[in-house]
Amino acid sequence: MSDLVTAAPQDTTTATYVFAVSRTVDPSVLAGLPGMEEGAPVHVLPCGRLTAVVQAVTAAHFTEEAWQARLSDPAELERCARAHHAVVSAAATCGPTVPLPLATLYRGDSRVRQAMADEADRFTSVLDRIAGHVEWGVKVYAAPAPSGPEPDVAGADTAVKGAGLAYLNRKRGLQQRRHHRHEEALRAAEAVDAELREFAAASRRLRPHGQEASGRRRVQVLNAAYLVAEGSAAELTELTGLLEARTGAEIEISGPWVPYSFVGGA
Amino acid sequence: MTDIDFRQGPQDSYPVPGPGSSSLADILERVLDKGIVIAGDIKIDLLDIELLTIRLRLFVASVDTAKKAGIDWWETDPALSSKASRNALEDENRDLRRRLECLESGEGERTAPESLTEDSAG
């Protein structure tokens, strides 16, 4: 009996991967989802007042070493992230759903039930908090710096003061223009965030994305998430349209998301 | 949502709420960083993995991008830059300002040491 715990890693011992926790989930919304690995289906695991969305996976494939290898491979990283996200999103079609981070694993279903019982109050309060709400992502981009020769902004009197001063003034002008662009981008980002915070029930700042992720030649100056009432997509779109016109910044919205950014109590 | 490389994925066929073609970066920052953390039986240190793969690949790149675009205030963000580069910029700024002040006072009163002016011009 106790051999299960100490069995060799190449055996077929399973672990239970947990995607999300809800009150109820209609099992049919999970049908056909591949989950983390081929084999066992993604299914619901009733845990008292809560329901966990889980999948039995081969324990040997989900050790820390296996994760290190898996998540260092961009293709595998993407597959896992999207598979996890697909299950979380499917479960959320049935009601408020708390996502768990990638790679939450237990030695078996009974261990999951135990953990859910231990954390039931925490899950319940978060489920209440996010009920009727969805997350929207909002990104603000600054216009790229103009290319071409720098205009002489130092003033006409520099001409008579020699090359040294002209050089320094050019350097100073460059610094000032950078500073100015910085201030403008910052102002636009803060203005957008302030308006959206008024509109939203809660907000979070996320780390801005680099160009590889954000695409084109543009700089992301705000990456934020807002918890808003379900069904307010049209209002949000209108508001961001107005803010775009007012600030001159490029604004991009994504959603609705399961409220990933608003379930962690920290 | 403009980078095609980060939008390909198998999820579009599911009836999921939310962005049908979400960018990978958007998904990663949510499934890795967010969600309720509960102690699992199998300990996975995602922070290390995240630092190695995600931050380097997707986020730290923004420092170079921002510099090229002429917005270098990222450098004051300790998450995105080393202290050294920030200090270098501050030092250069301070040095330039000092030299400019010397020059301007020299032009006005003609009392600045000659060596300073020559140094600045070169």
What does this structure look like?
The complex is a heterodimer of chains A (about 270) and B (about 120). Chain A has 8 helices and 9 strands. With about 270 residues, chain A is α+β, with helices and mostly antiparallel strands. Chain A folds into 2 domains: about 130 residues; about 100 residues, Alpha-Beta Plaits, CATH 3.30.70. In chain A, strands 1, 2, 3, 4 and 5 form a 5-stranded antiparallel beta sheet that branches. In chain A, strands 7-8-6-9 form a 4-stranded antiparallel beta sheet, with helices on one face. In chain A, strand 2 and strand 3 form a beta hairpin. The longest helix of chain A is centred in the C-terminal third of the chain and has 38 residues. The radius of gyration of chain A is 25 Å and the shape is elongated. The N terminus of chain A is likely disordered. Chain B has about 120 residues and is mostly helical. Chain B folds into 2 domains: about 40 residues, no CATH class; about 50 residues, no CATH class. Chain B is built from 5 helices and no strands. Classes of the chains: A alpha+beta (about 270), B mainly alpha (about 120). At the A-B interface, strand 1, helix 2, helix 3, strand 5 and helix 5 of A face helix 1, helix 2, helix 3, helix 4 and helix 5 of B.
Summarize the structure.
The complex is a heterodimer of chains A (266) and B (122). Chain A is α+β, with helices and mostly antiparallel strands.
Fraction of residues of chain A in helices? 40-55%
The profile of the biggest β sheet of chain A is:
5 strands, antiparallel
Unreliable stretches of chain A (pLDDT < 50, length at least 5) are 1-5
**Which descriptor suits the 3D outline of chain A?**
elongated
Number of helices of chain B: 5
The end-to-end span of chain B amounts to 48 Å
Q: Encode the helix/strand succession of chain A as letters.
A: HEEEHHEEHHEHEHEHE
Domains counted in the coordinates of chain A: how many? 2
Number of domains of chain B: 2
H/E series of chain B: HHHHH
Classification by helices and strands of chain A = alpha+beta
- Dominant shape of chain B: rod-shaped
Task: Provide the low-confidence segments of chain B as ranges.
Answer: 1-18, 59-86, 108-122
- If you average the pLDDT of chain B, what whole number results? 54
Beta strand count of chain A? 9
Cα gyration radius of chain B (Å): 25 Å
The number of distinct β-strands of chain B equals: 0
Pfam families (chain B): Gas_vesicle
Region (Disordered) (chain B): 1-20, 102-122
Protein name (chain B): Gas vesicle protein GvpJ 2
Biased composition (Basic and acidic residues) (chain B): 102-112
